[in-house]
Each structure stands twice: as C-alpha cells, then as structure tokens.
Amino acid sequence: METAGGNRQSKTLGKVITTVALVLLLAGLAPGLIAPPVAHAAMNSTPNQGTYVTDGKVRTVAIVGGITYIGGDFHNVGPEGGGMTPRNHIAALDSTGALTTWNPNADDVVESIVVSGTTIYVGGWFHNIGTTPTARNHIAALDTSGAVTAWNPNANNYVYTLAVSGTTVYAGGYFANIGGQARNGIAALNMTNGNADATWNPNATGGAEICDILISGTTVYVGGGGFTNIGGQARNGIAALNMTNGNADAAWNPNANAYVITLAISGDGTAVYAGGYFTNIGGQARNRIAALNMTNGNATTWNPNANDVVRDITPSSSDVFIGGDFTTLAGGATTRNRIAALDVSTGAATAWNPNANNNIWEVYLSGTTVYAGGDFTTIGGAARNRFARFDSPTIASVLPTSGAQGQTMNVDIVGTDTAFGAGSTASFGADITVNSTTVTDATHATANITIGAGAAAGTRDVNVTTGGETPD
C-alpha cells in the first residue's frame, strides 16, 4: 500500500470542461489590454495512452521529482501493445510515462515503496534486490542508481507497508523479527542503521498482520487483520499508537469486525478513512469503507456502502478516490467497477467512471493526476495493462485572445491532455453566441462566435465541454 503522499487535490469530476480567459473589449478599445490565460479543468475518465504498462499486477506507486516508482508482481514494462523491457517487480517511469534505466531487479513481489530524499525504501516478499543482486530479506533501501545501501533490517517475513517520519522508518507486515529485535507485525526502524527502536514495541498479537501504516502528527494509525491486541490494548484490526511509546490510544477504538487494509486522513484533517473487508466499524454498520472521527474513533455519517473490498483510499479536498474489488456503491444503487471518486461531503459517487475490468490495488493522486495500479487490462474504455494515468485537461491557448462588441469571429482553442470530440461544445458566457464548435483532433477545436452588441467588457471564461454535460 502507498502510505506517504504530498498535496492531494482534484477538480469537480464527471465532465471534461476546460476553461481559459478571453478578454472582451469595448468597440474601439485598444486590443493590447489582454489578460494572461487562466485554466481550469475536470479529470479525464480516459487514461493517458503514452504511459507505459506492465505484464503483472501493480500494487504500489510513489511519485517524487517527476519520477513514478511502481512495484508489484510484474516482470516486464513497456508501451501498451508494444515491445516490453524486463523489469522484475519494481521500475521507474519518467515524467512522460516512459521507462527509465533504473532497475533494482527484485526477485519477488514489491508491496510498498516510500521515497525519502534520495533514498527509496521498499518492502515486500523479495530476498534479493539491487542493480547488483544483494541479499535483502523483505525490506531494503535503494539509491537513485538502483543499488542497495548498507541499511538492512532483515525481516523474517513479508513487509506490506512502509511509512517515514523524521529519521524513523515504520514497517508493517507479517514478520516476527526485524531490525535485530523480536517485533510482531510492526516496528520503528532507525533510518541510519536499520535497527529496531529498542523501546517502541506495540507487539501486535493474535495472528498479527499489519497492512497499512498512516502517520498523522504524533500518532501512528495502523490497519490490518488477525491482531486482537496491540499497544497494550485489545484492538481488532485498527488502532492509533503513540509515536513515543507505542501505546494504543485508550479512547480510540473503532473495533473493525474484519480486515482493515487501507487508511487515509481526510482532506480537512478531521477524519480517518478506512477501507477493507469489514462490515462493521466505529460502532456502525459500514460496508468496506468508513470515515472515523479522529478523536473517538466513531464512524461518521459518511457511508459510500461498497459491495466488495476497498483496497486503497486517496482523498483530496473535494473528492475521495477509491479502488478495490467492488462493483457497486450506495448499497447497489450506483455501479462503479473497482474505481471511483466519492464526494467528500456526501460519500456519493461523482460522475467520474473509468470502469476497470479487474481489481484495483492502488490509487495515487499527484497534483491533479490520478494513477491506478492493479490486475485490470482495460480501464476508461481503453486497453491498459495493470497501470493507468488519468490527467486533468487544460487549455494551452486561445487565439485571438480578444474580441469586440458586434463582432463575429473564429476562436482557435488548443488543449493539453484534452479529449475533444464530435460532441464537444464551447461556451463563452452571457451575450456571446456560439454558432458552431468544430473539432480538428483531441487537442484542437475552433469555435465560431458572435459577440452581442450589449455584451459586457472584461475577461470571459471559455468552456469546452466533452461528454454531453453543461459546464457549471
């Protein structure tokens, strides 16, 4: 699971609306008074076709400095439908989505990738990893060349999740020994030498398996399955641990009735989102996804009600992106195949609907771009093997950038990551009539407009809508 992320944001979803400013001048006014373009956009449901894909499941994604790191079950990476290049379980893509030369060549599944500075921490099932294969059991640190560093906590079983806070790397999984200490399912590792913190030992018991670790302030939230006690308290599948001593928060006990496999903090910082297999959590019936009060662990009224497993949750300020095995939300009322965007206030699915044909294991939001990894081979109506990127379209330019009252004119519109098509329509606001919108290709359109004699002067927004919906 991906457990570390930067700023998360998105625009209103469901229609492709691209906007740029056009200055409307009074007749006879000097045409030099032109404002810089301003762009707004809604996210595409169709994936970027240039991003490389894999021949096996993608389980984890991390993006830093324009480099996209992916890990999973794959053995080859390449363009959709094109020649593939060997990459065993871990790879790096550049800002265009193409494969880089970085090749740590793990000998088994990579479950988690977290980047801190110039170090890439990885966890999984592997026993050897690095440009020069080096023994590393289930956890390793790689440099920017793909070589392993001296850091070697040497876990005795699977590492599923990693998180970094300050000079500590938190690891969760199915292990009983790591960093030179007996540690059941979870440990705090020194970033310099890989040793387990001698005093921080929450000691998850009862068949402990930690699936996700989430850091918020001085609290370490953990989700998993099997454990019935952690941090010295009876806790089923989910807990909040003190970062200093590892003790469980005595007041925060959502008490899930089945596995919790993903956690995230809400965009406003008031709730912990939880996803997994459960049907009851926080004292309420909640099917596989819930929002939990950060103070007392009670479930809030937010209830998307998924019919199957939710494997990953990534929130923004306005939307909550989820992926998993589900095919319906809202108790069966809304069809969403394995990936969806939920309204942050109501929990209802937005119109964004990429419709994956198989399970989603990872959803990652970087700026206004959503990445998805999993088992799928089609998504967003396109062939995409196990990895996809959904861009937010923007307007690069409009020409001319000004017009006058009473004028009929053509406006050439150029987009970036747009999907203009036969149904695309342009609008320019009050008292400007759009006579026609002609699409040349996915990124070029021309609108013929007539500016009314009484149209107000000033900057106007130019909207291009694709998908048959009217701009807000």
Automatic annotation (TrEMBL):
Transmembrane segments: none annotated. Gene3D superfamilies: 2.80.10.50, Immunoglobulins. GO terms for biological process: carbohydrate metabolic process. The keyword Signal applies. Keywords: Signal. Pfam families: DUF5122. InterPro entries: Delta_60_rpt, Ig-like_fold, Quino_amine_DH_bsu. It comes from the Bacteria. Residues 1-41 form the signal peptide. The keyword Signal applies. This is Uncharacterized protein.
